Amino acid sequence: MSSNELIDRKYYSLYIGNLSADIRRKELCQYLEHFGQVDECQLFEANHRRWTCFAFILMRTPDSINQLMSTRPHFLDNRRLYIKRALPDQCSNKIEHFLTSENVLIQFKNSENQEINEPDFNEENIRNYFQTYGNILNLYLLKNNRCVIEYSDYDSVDCIILDSPHYFNSHELHIDKYYSTEQLKQLDRMFIHNHELPLPGAGEDDEHVGQFLHSRRYLNMRIRLLNDSILSVKISNEIKLETIHRGFLLTINRRKELLEQIKELNKQCQILHEKNQTIKENNQNRFQFNNKLEKIYQKQIHDEQNKQNEWREKIELLQEQS
């Protein structure tokens, strides 16, 4: 298969899990053809090591895949189907094809071997680029130019991985799904119970099982899971520290805002106090002025009354003389 065919194929492929043990290929294809033409359907039936069926689907167009993903959840034979985009081996580890995550870990490729100083690797630029893949719930900037993005839908993470490689200012980015410790425990259980691991009582003797458990392939997988668990705990702690740091900064900023508001309120109170003092002084001046006016008016009234009395006496005197 050529590289172009592989690139094309990865956008047309779908993984469907949790299928009924009684499902038939024709029945599954009939359901999927409501969303577009099905080119290939590989159905893996249940057996003594695998209690559910799953299938790999190749659709005719990527739009069919997008429509299937955007119209989740899907139900068939009263079972809720587990649907995700099939990731090629070049995009992720084999067993991780079947485990979804809403979190993606982003870092510069080969950043462990060389120190990359990239000042533009900030929250605004990262968000502007990766928000085209879906709704971002949280974005955590970590040490050493690393970042964890939490999406509302696991399909956004699969689309990012499918579109790899990604570049940031000519630096290639290394993209991985980020799993919590609980998800890694689930991944561990999936590996233990997957069809590659022989189980006692299933036609395999204890010696065969022991040989498998001591095989290089099994030990390498266990080491990788252990390393992933250590990395997950480390990143989880960094995220917690980043969350605490953000909360601390928000508290400080909120405290500054409150102090500014208190300062502004104190200024307004001082202004109101000065205005109130001015009004008091004005009222006092008006009171004093009114008192003066009242005294003047009283004196004028008294003088007028005296004048009237004098004139009245003069008139009476004139009347007597006449």
TrEMBL record:
SMART domains named among the record's database cross-references: RRM
Domain RRM: 12-88
Pfam families in the cross-refs: RRM_1
Location within or outside the cell: Nucleus
Gene Ontology CC terms, in alphabetical order: chromatin; nucleoplasm
Alphabetical UniProt keywords: Coiled coil, Nucleus, RNA-binding
Recorded coiled-coil stretches: 255-321
Gene Ontology biological-process annotations: regulation of gene expression
Domain of life: Eukaryota
Gene Ontology terms for molecular function: RNA binding
PROSITE patterns named among the record's database cross-references: RRM
Protein name (Swiss-Prot/TrEMBL): RRM domain-containing protein
Protein source organism: Rotaria sordida
Taxonomic path: Eukaryota, Metazoa, Spiralia, Gnathifera, Rotifera
